[in-house]
Amino acid sequence: IARGSQIRDIAGALEARRIVRSGRAFTVLARLSGRDRAIQAGNYLLPRRRTPGSILRILVLGDVARSLVTIPEGLRIEEVASILAREARMDSSAFVRAGLDPRLSDSLGVGAAGLEGYLFPETYSVHLGSSPREMAARMARLALREYAALASSNEAPGAAGRAALMTLASIVQAEAQVMGEMPRISAVFHNRLRLGWRLEADPTVQYALGTHKPRILYEDLEVDSPYNTYRREGLPPGPICSPGRDAIRAALEPASGEQSLYFVARGDGTHVFTRTLDEHLRARAAARRGD
Asked: How does DSSP assign the chain, residue by residue?
């Protein structure tokens, strides 16, 4: 039901879809009860075996159709848009445009050129027909609230601030397959940043390439992008995905006393953490052998 729809048009649509038997009778009922101008706009899922009075009541209450949509951790804007399109019939292109619009991020106080990394992973109750722009804003507001709650008892390292911490959290989210390792992975990156080393994080190269590859090749490490942390020092310009609570907490609270500077993935999703290059090379060789 579009905003500003007349009762005759609404009744006609209900009759055409066999939700009411007579659109004229529904119009008379709505006018006699004084509720013909109280019907709320929105998308509805209406049963066919209800009385006209109960249908009218649903429309006046604005009991619009909703869908529960779960957004997992570690997704990019385009991936979030795809889920919303599938689960909530949302225009994915419009959602991506909103997520990349610096005017929207500025209005929310995000402090970034877009909402990449700020579409908080959570389960949302979404009205079918919701505005993609408002949905993106809703997710970003939740991300800012969650960050504020987690950061209230922590001090951001140096002058990094929220933008840097969210960027780091996104890399931790992309690197970690086991939640319990997030603080250790975060500590490795904190140690590298403190020493002025490059992060050399494969997920940032994936982001720079704009695609998911099962394995990063040496030639991929040469991609010319500010997101390529094999070629650029420090953090990339912004998040590479949307981190969840655990990754944000890990960025704020890296493992205390962790002195590792390297980690290499085992086949089971866990990592071997090492302090020296020699240890790292041995661990990498062992991982490739499947030891």
From this structure: --TT--HHHHHHHHHHTTSSS-HHHHHHHHHHTT-TT-PPPS-----SSS-HHHHHHHHHHT---EEEEE--TT--HHHHHHHHHHHH---HHHHHHHHT-HHHHHHHT--SSS-TT-S--SEEEEETT--HHHHHHHHHHHHHHHHHHHHTTS--STT-HHHHHHHHHHHHHHH-SSGGGHHHHHHHHHHHHHHT-----HHHHHHHHTS--SS--GGGGG---TT-TTTS-S--SS-SS---HHHHHHHHSPPTT----EEEE-TTS-EEEESSHHHHHHHHHHHHHT-
- Note whether 52 and 45 are within 8 A (CB): no
pLDDT at 216: 86
pLDDT for 268 equals 87
pLDDT of residue 291: 64
Q: Count the neighbouring beta carbons within 10 Å of the beta carbon of residue 268.
A: 8
Strands 123-127 and 262-265 turn out to be unpaired
199: nearest Cα among 188, 213, 207, 214:
188
Half-sphere exposure of 125 (CA within 13 A, CB side): 4
Structure tokens at 96: 């991506």
Residue-level pLDDT at 159? 32
pLDDT lower than 50: segments of the chain: 157-160
- CB burial of 101-114 (b: ≥16 within 10 Å; e: otherwise) equals beebbeebebebeb
CA distance 175 to 187: 13
- The residue written with tokens 């609404």 in the block is 10
* CA–centroid distance for 287 within its chain: 32
Q: Alpha-carbon distance 96 to 167, whole Å?
A: 19
Q: What is the pLDDT of residue 158?
A: 38
How does pLDDT run across 8-34, given as a tens digit for each residue? 999 999 999 999 999 999 999 999 999
